[in-house]
Design a protein that fits this description.
single chain; Alpha-Beta Plaits; Beta-Lactamase; 2 domains; 41% helix; six-stranded antiparallel sheet; 20% strand; alpha+beta
């Protein structure tokens, strides 16, 4: 079993990897979300985000796999980082490079492997976003494109390690991080012909909370609303705080017909003390690549719909108030 040769820029590659300070860190939702999406798109039992270290490959995310790392000389990903594009092994038992690999001959019994390089901000390949199956299989170009887009999302998340893309108060992705992640998510949905829907939330009369009870109470309301969003929507959905009392959720593989149920669940949420969720307005916009060439276009449409719903509810309330006199 010949191990993969080292890339020509191995020293620089390892410096870039170490500079991220990501090795041996705990799992993070931002990466786990991507491997869950990969696993679902490919209907594969294992999906990984790997990082190829000096003598091992370590998995930042590993749904379907119990162990956190393997020796580098057994690594499929060490081969994948040598390529510019996808590295595909349809049947490892039929490939002389891998037929006697311990990871093929014994657990996890790899037969199919597809990986795409994940690069550092300086362009060096650090590891892969890959999927693994226990049965041989073929891939089509559409599958390769989807894997490439997911690897691009992983690269955006690596880049965010060096950028301020998280909201300090709620821990959610902030506007900058959302725009970067959403652009790749929408490109992926467009490529594989999957729908996507953006929900934009605005907390009703939130200013009165700060004015009446103070900013500490306002912060608590924001944190609680963020927690309710995370517990209501799917792990693969992108939840972000855009600023102030505005939040959004980007749902891949969902149309506006799928929205009423999670919205109803959200409205029914209560705090640990039994208090109902803070009232909110929400607008939905279905992704259309022709009408939404940029993420900002989709956000703008959802924002317009949200304010339309808010105005309608206000007008209905005023009308109801007049009718009772």
């Amino acid at each position: 079993m010949p191990p993969a040769p080292s890339p020509e820029n191995e020293s620089q590659r390892l410096r870039s990897l170490r500079a991220l300070n990501i090795l041996d860190t705990p799992p993070e939702e931002r990466f786990d979300r991507l491997t869950r999406v990969a696993r679902r798109l490919f209907d594969a039992p294992i999906a990984l985000m790997s990082l190829v270290d000096e003598d091992r490959q370590w998995f930042k995310s590993r749904p379907g796999l119990d162990f956190p790392q393997t020796p580098r000389d057994q690594s499929f990903c060490a081969h994948a980082i040598l390529d510019e594009g996808a590295f595909i092994v349809p049947d490892a038992l039929a490939d002389e490079r891998f037929s006697d690999n311990p990871l093929v001959r014994s657990f996890p019994e790899i037969r199919f492997y597809a990986g795409y390089p994940v690069r550092a901000p300086d362009g060096t390949a650090l590891g892969t976003l890959c999927v693994i199956d226990h049965e041989p299989r073929d891939v089509e170009q559409e599958d390769v494109d989807a894997l490439r887009d997911l690897a691009g999302l992983a690269e955006q998340e690596l880049k965010s390690l060096t950028l301020a893309t998280s909201d300090d108060l709620t821990g959610l992705t902030n506007r900058r991080g959302f725009e970067a992640i959403a652009s790749h998510t929408l490109a992926l949905c467009h490529r594989v012909h999957r729908p996507a829907t953006l929900l934009l939330f605005d907390l009703d009369d939130f200013k009165e909370v700060n004015d009446t009870f103070g900013h500490l109470e306002g912060d608590r309301v924001l944190q609680e609303f963020a927690d309710h969003l995370l517990s209501t929507f799917r792990d693969s959905d992108v939840v972000a705080r855009l600023g102030g009392d505005e939040f959004c959720v980007l749902l891949s593989g969902a149309t506006t017909r799928d929205i009423p149920r999670p919205i109803a669940l959200l409205r029914g949420r209560r705090s640990d003390s039994g208090q109902p969720i803070h009232p909110f307005s929400v607008g939905a916009a279905a992704y259309d690549p022709k009408r939404h060439p940029a993420v900002a276009d989709l956000v703008r449409e959802a924002d317009t719909e949200m304010y339309r719903q808010k105005s309608k509810r206000t007008d209905d309330g005023l009308r109801h108030g007049r009718d009772t006199h």
